TrEMBL record:
Sequence intervals crossing the membrane: none
InterPro entries hit by this protein: Ald_Oxase/Xan_DH_a/b (IPR000674), AldOxase/xan_DH_MoCoBD1 (IPR008274), AldOxase/xan_DH_MoCoBD2 (IPR046867), AldOxase/xan_DH_Mopterin-bd_sf (IPR037165), N-heterocyclic_Hydroxylase (IPR052516), OxRdtase_Mopterin-bd_su_IorB (IPR012368), TAT_signal (IPR006311)
Domain of life: Bacteria
Source species: Paraburkholderia guartelaensis
Pfam families with a match to the protein in the record: MoCoBD_1 (PF02738), MoCoBD_2 (PF20256)
Name of the protein described by the UniProt record: Xanthine dehydrogenase family protein molybdopterin-binding subunit
Length: 745
């Protein structure tokens, strides 16, 4: 399997490798079939995500001359089949541990009728036109959309390739294509016991007209989809040969460590670098607007040089910002009416007629991403080109950032993408790329810019601080008849994708809150945008559903307690119109032995979630002792529609739960004098391996369309843990992280 776009032997980009045709030339046409001089067949399918569209054919000569472009909606895959029968998928999503480098090839292999381990994959280069994801509005990986995006287009791509190969074989044998079938990388004619391998058919298949439509397999005939498959990227990760951004090595490369202004929005005033220049291995000191980079022969020299700098900062207005002022601003903002995200019935009248009213305020802190692979980017800026080696979720935005800083045309900026050592939304941002290009413009060599862990945590783009006011009016039976939820916080989408903001509502900020699975007759959900002064905010493993599910599911638990009703039963009574949600709740309750006795100091908590097209219910079992929480066991029932690789789903839930435990119990970013107080894992605590609970994942078999799975586990786990703590202690903790609150209660 091909990992990364850098040849490990000579450091040269692999952009020139497609049978004599440069990748850039290859990607400039929207071909569905191209016959190369080597006799290979390249299939690049131009299929819209929501409709079948037309597939067109372009023929190129063996000299690699660029063909005329043809109109395309948004291609979803490029598949290369060479004369040996090797299948290469240029994959439109990036791998950051979520398993798409296995599950997406499974979609192709299923319909193409080839063994999974025969598919090799390569990163897609930046090309918004070719690799546009309509679910996300661009070429990016995030939002738990990879399989939802790829489900039909990738299968259709494989099926179209199979049809061409079958037709080519039928023509050669002069038989009806209906009497032929594909199997295990070859076409077979059972009546005469003849076979032809795919590699023998590529040239002939490339000369055939592409069918405008193909029949996809019935799910009952799937051989790969839905079965357990080993990760294709595991062997290279295990033996250390897998290429991450941090692994890039180039001839003549130098290394830089950055020191950013400790105050958000601050600038460099002056620097005394005399001591740094005396350190062996330090080559150069580079000044940029908000920081200083020390360039050396290796990272250790650059790090030592950075520590020796004496820097004066122009801190600016950001120096007056503190977490206290930020929360105070949010509290005041939450007292005013917001933009309406959902309105049903007459909430005012329903509250007036309610027997009981329950009010609560929930607060959730800023959070850093703290990916295991620290932020890094390698850049080589030359007079007429800029090469960027990085692991990014947004290759097109990374390219555009390089073009903007260098002033070069976009086609002169090449992004070489790699495996990501954790994304979680952090690598949806290009601030690290922008900074690295600024440094590289002043260095006459390829330069790798690496952020230390302290720089990473103190100059992250943070999960926003959210302040929620939520109220319910209950009838005489304890059932909600009025529901009001106001969310105050930063709008990430106003910066990241401003066209998604409609009537003042950030759809991410209100996700889950504005589309509950529960039957609530009178609802008002509104949103107040309140930006924290100078603090940059960004996505954090499912921002909207993560924060929204915590508030809603914690508050539903409060209502169950208020009415002296079992929390599972209380939810059951409200889920009559959502059978999939009710089903996962029942499964999770049964598998967790809900209702059975636990020792003193232990408790179980439950949550239900519908987001990303998936339904989850989770039961967490915790022990609380001397102000410390240990999560002992988590049971999760998942209905994500049709799943591709159950191993991937299980792993994603497990990782999401562990990520959630960290966020629920420990993690928060606090600010004083415009500075982030946390700096490393010593004070930004991460769950340790010995603290990880037993996690049981049950997958519901379903014929529904696939849902997302990367973020739901994190979203559902936080309220389940908080509710379990209440069951164990009788203390309702509405602020995260709950671990800090327990110690202070």
């Amino acid at each position: 399997m091909s990992q990364g776009l850098l040849d490990a032997q000579n450091g040269e980009p692999r952009d020139k490798a497609l049978s004599g045709l440069t990748r850039r030339a290859f990607l400039k046409f929207s071909a569905s079939v191209a016959v190369l001089g080597s006799g290979g067949l390249i299939l690049g399918f131009s299929l819209p995500a929501r409709s079948e569209g037309d597939v067109r054919k372009t023929v190129i000569g063996g000299d690699g001359v660029e063909p005329a472009q043809s109109a395309v909606f948004a291609p979803n895959a490029f598949v290369q089949i060479d004369t040996s029968g090797k299948v290469t998928l240029i994959i439109p999503k990036v791998e950051m541990g979520q398993g798409v480098y296995t599950s997406i090839p499974m979609l192709i292999a299923e319909e193409l009728e080839v063994p999974l381990d025969s598919v090799t994959i390569d990163h897609a280069p930046p090309n918004e036109k070719l690799f546009f994801d309509p679910l996300l509005g661009g070429q990016l990986t995030g939002g738990s959309t990879s399989i939802r995006y790829a489900w039909e287009p990738m299968r259709r791509a494989g099926a179209t390739a199979r049809a061409l190969l079958v037709n080519a074989a039928a023509q050669q044998w002069q038989v009806d294509p209906a009497t032929c079938h594909a199997q295990n990388g070859q076409v077979m004619h059972a009546a005469t016991n003849r076979t032809l391998a795919y590699g023998q058919l590529t040239e002939a298949a490339g000369k055939l007209p592409v069918p405008g439509d193909v029949t996809l397999k019935d799910p009952k005939d799937f051989k790969l989809i839905g079965t357990t498959a080993r990760r294709l990227d595991s062997p290279e990760k295990v033996d250390g040969s897998a290429m991450f951004g941090l692994d890039v090595r180039l001839p003549g490369m130098v290394y830089a460590v950055i020191v950013n202004c400790p105050v958000f929005g601050g600038k460099l005033a002056a620097v005394d670098d005399s001591a740094a220049r005396t350190i062996p291995g330090v080559r150069q000191i580079v000044k940029i607007d908000n920081g200083v980079a020390v360039v050396g022969d290796h990272t250790w020299a650059a790090k030592r040089g950075a520590a020796a700098l004496k820097i004066s900062w122009d801190e600016g207005a950001g120096a007056s910002v503190s977490i206290k002022t930020i929360v105070g601003d949010l509290e005041r903002a939450s007292q005013g009416e917001g933009a309406v995200a959902r309105k049903e019935g007459d909430v005012t009248r329903a509250f007036a007629g309610a027997k009981t009213r329950v009010d609560a305020i929930y607060r959730q802190p800023f959070l850093a991403h703290a990916t295991m692979e620290p932020m890094n980017c390698t850049v080589h800026v030359q007079q007429d080109s800029c090469d960027i080696w990085v692991g990014t979720q947004v290759p097109t935005r990374a390219r555009d950032a390089g073009a903007k800083i260098t002033g070069l045309p976009a086609d002169k900026v090449v992004v070489h993408n790699f495996l990501l050592g954790g994304g979680f939304g952090r690598r949806l941002e290009v601030d690290g790329v922008t900074q690295a290009v600024k440094v590289a413009k002043q260095v006459n060599a390829p330069v790798k810019v690496t952020w230390t862990r302290e720089e990473d945590i103190q100059h992250d783009m943070y999960r926003p601080y959210y302040y929620d006011r939520i109220s319910a009016g209950l009838d005489e039976h304890g059932k909600p008849v009025a529901w009001q939820h106001r969310i105050a916080g930063s709008s990430i989408l106003s910066r990241f994708a401003p066209s998604t903001i409609k009537n003042g509502v950030d759809p991410d900020a209100v996700e889950v809150a504005a589309a509950l699975p529960y039957d609530l007759p009178n609802q008002l959900v509104d949103y107040v945008r309140q930006e924290p002064d100078a603090i940059p905010t960004a996505f954090w493993r499912g921002v909207g559903p993560t924060r929204g599910t915590f508030v809603v599911e914690s508050f539903i638990d409060e209502l169950a307690v208020q009415t002296k009703t079992d929390p599972v039963q209380y939810r059951r009574d409200l889920l009559g119109k959502s059978p999939r949600a009710l089903n996962v709740l029942d499964i999770a309750a049964r598998l967790s032995n809900w209702g059975s006795a636990l020792p003193k100091g232990q408790g179980r908590g439950v949550s239900v979630m519908h987001a990303f097209g998936s339904y989850l219910s989770m039961v967490a079992e915790v022990t609380v002792e001397q102000g410390e929480v240990r999560v002992n066991r988590v049971v999760c029932a998942v209905d994500c529609g049709m799943f591709v690789n159950p191993n991937t789903v299980e792993a994603q839930i497990q990782g999401g739960v562990i990520f959630a435990i960290t966020g629920a119990l420990y993690s928060e970013v606090t600010i004083e004098r415009g500075r982030v107080l946390q700096s490393n894992f010593t004070d930004y605590r991460i769950l340790r391996i010995h603290e990880a609970p037993e996690i049981l994942v049950h997958l519901v078999k379903s014929g529904e369309a696939p849902g997302g799975i990367g973020e739901p586990g994190t979203s559902a786990a936080m309220p389940a843990i908080a509710n379990a703590i209440y069951a164990a202690t009788g203390k309702r903790l509405r602020d995260l992280p709950v671990g800090r609150q327990l110690q202070s209660v």
